[in-house]
């Protein structure tokens, strides 16, 4: 499963030993914003044709390094040190000089393909603009180069018309357009800031392959920013690990993974492959039953008075979750996970089929069934967005009480708050704070406390750890495992991230195009997938090397 | 695009039909007899009966509605009771003042607001922005008739460049335009202030979008990114406001028309209401509704011209 063969044929030593000067030479670069130091004298070299990954958690300064290289730091930021591209220091350059370099000598790819393109221009126009703005070719010539570049990134005109607008493309196709804009003028340096984080695993694999191919073909240097060590391992020739604005460890990928010196690097690695320890559970009767569920959405009419098209979001899904069971649901975006989740929560009706919790339907007479609804809770991906910033913690986490016919008051309410906060590893004193006073991981703990407070029988975790840094993610996964033991929780863990699902569930459901294509015990599905789609998903997911640092043994599970 | 157009046209026709029905019902079916209402409480019964016959009130309600709508479709709006002239003629005369005035004011307001909003957005948080925002604050706060009086004082009385009021008719186009200039400016300034603020905030929203950062990464200067990628994206909310402003300017210029003695639609409505000339009121209101609905239709078309996402949504 791991790709431990030669990663970059014919060029393994290119990164070390400076016979020729590096293409990009970051020399003791410091950046301060409003007196606060964001980057502490970092030094980093990238040679032509080399892929260097900057990795670390959010706030470590990876993106700031990229923006500094592009000369696109926020207005109040002050940079010192030197940033040499081909020997020329970029820091003292004026804005017009930088404009001439951006897009021509340095190209950049961003994280969010859905919003990084102008919705009002065709993709061809946007790619051609890179060429025209630098006066690199006549209008006709630019148009031809743009078409060639789009074809080169896997969007040939006979497959995808270049007169399309961004909203007519998928996320992966949009990311290809953005790559085309960045490489149209064959820049010497390409910067990719989390280029695949927003994409599905199979799309991610394709985009990474494309980037690798372009780098090899053009001899570009690639600065790849990613928090995902598995992606780093698949892609990079060399790694620089960043923490709090400093590079704490750097080295060739294989050597670094084989011998991690800095404790932070080891911590990141351990957290990345972390699996929570689930307690053994006894067989039990089914709690949630989903039987032959279909959900059809009416689409737009075809023509003015034509029949409506229909979208079949969920097609004949059936499964049970036993009391105390921990089930995963994986699938790519658009596979019907979200529709199914909403239907289970009783937030919307199903077209046909039944969903029952302990024998009672979740949706009756056009309304969520309240007596069932109060036995289920959900934890979402974005904890900040799901909390009202004006309320204090005690009010936030007691929100589910409105589901109860007789919510606890006074001392009973206070006790419930204290217990919920303690259960998720927070202090009862936190009840008077506002949500902005908490970190991302703490917010997710609060979201779990909010779900726990009415003692639900079933919790749905909907991408609940996807937005968290690896170390925080590992802690939250441990917390979930611990709560499942202490409270006998039953949960459905919905995620696009296979490695996370693997570590936190007993059984897994694989969903594709509205159907469950495979289900079974988690280890069996991952180790011996039967359905081709499951195999494809697992093959596409980037993997960490088996050997790591001081401890070479993979955790037996 | 054709489907979008057809859909908009159907919605236009439906809105017009519903609006005409509502106006008809309010005026004709509401309690009280229009004839006796128009003649006042001291009218003699035979006068009322004569007026009823003249207005066609002795017909059944559906018949009257069909006659009214049919008349409007053929350009016959009925006869004003007060002036004894065809309503269509009266409205046409007034429209030749109000429509050019509204268009004139709208053009001025757009011409002032677009550069002002663009400038303020590009200098966000700096002196230029603060100056523009201060000026627009003033423009929103000060009523337009006050501007009108200041303009008359300065340009008509003190400098003598323009007449203080009146309208010479369109026989001499230059004179007509000149007569409409001060009213148009007075109308345009507060509208421009609102529009500039909308333009600025819309642009600032767009400047925070990811695709502006992408444009900068391609090598566009901040100004180029703003003009090439910001402007058109910022236009949707601005177009909405422009549409609303046009509808307002067409009928809402009544105070300005009074200040400058202009024979416009606003004054016509005002006079008809005070004289209880319900036929005129009914027709002018229908006309204004028609104008608003048509303008909304045009704004919808403009949205589609600006945003391809609206075109392809079937």
Explain what you see:
The complex is a heterodimer of chains A (557) and B (314). Chain A is α/β, with parallel strands linked by helices and 557 residues long. Chain A is 32% helix and 25% strand. Chain A is built from 18 helices and 22 strands. A 6-stranded mixed beta sheet of chain A has the order 6-7-8-3-9-10, with helices on both faces. In chain A, helix 6 links the parallel strand 7 and strand 8. In chain A, helix 3 packs across helix 4. With 314 residues, chain B is mainly alpha-helical. Chain B has a domain of 219 residues: MetI-like (MetI-like fold, Orthogonal Bundle). Chain B contains 14 helices and no strands. The longest helix of chain B has 36 residues. The model of chain B has no long low-confidence stretch (mean pLDDT 85). Chains A and B meet through helix 2, helix 3 and helix 5 of A and helix 1, helix 9, helix 10 and helix 14 of B.
Q: How are the SSEs ordered, and which strands pair?
A:
The complex is a heterodimer of chains A (557) and B (314).
Chain A: E1 24-33, E2 36-46, E3 51-55, H1 62-70, E4 77-85, E5 88-89, H2 95-101, E6 106-109, H3 123-133, H4 139-152, H5 171-183, E7 189-193, H6 201-218, E8 221-225, H7 229-235, E9 238-243, E10 246-252, H8 253-258, H9 263-272, E11 286-301, E12 308-322, E13 326-330, H10 337-344, E14 352-357, E15 360-361, E16 363-364, E17 367-368, H11 370-373, E18 376-379, H12 393-397, H13 410-423, H14 440-452, E19 458-462, H15 470-487, E20 490-495, H16 498-504, E21 507-512, E22 515-521, H17 522-527, H18 532-540
Parallel strand pairs in A: 3-8, 3-9, 6-7, 7-8, 13-20, 13-21, 18-19, 19-20
Antiparallel strand pairs in A: 1-2, 1-4, 4-5, 9-10, 11-12, 11-14, 14-15, 16-17, 21-22
Chain B: H1 2-29, H2 34-39, H3 45-55, H4 61-73, H5 87-122, H6 127-141, H7 144-158, H8 173-207, H9 210-218, H10 222-252, H11 254-259, H12 265-274, H13 278-306, H14 308-312
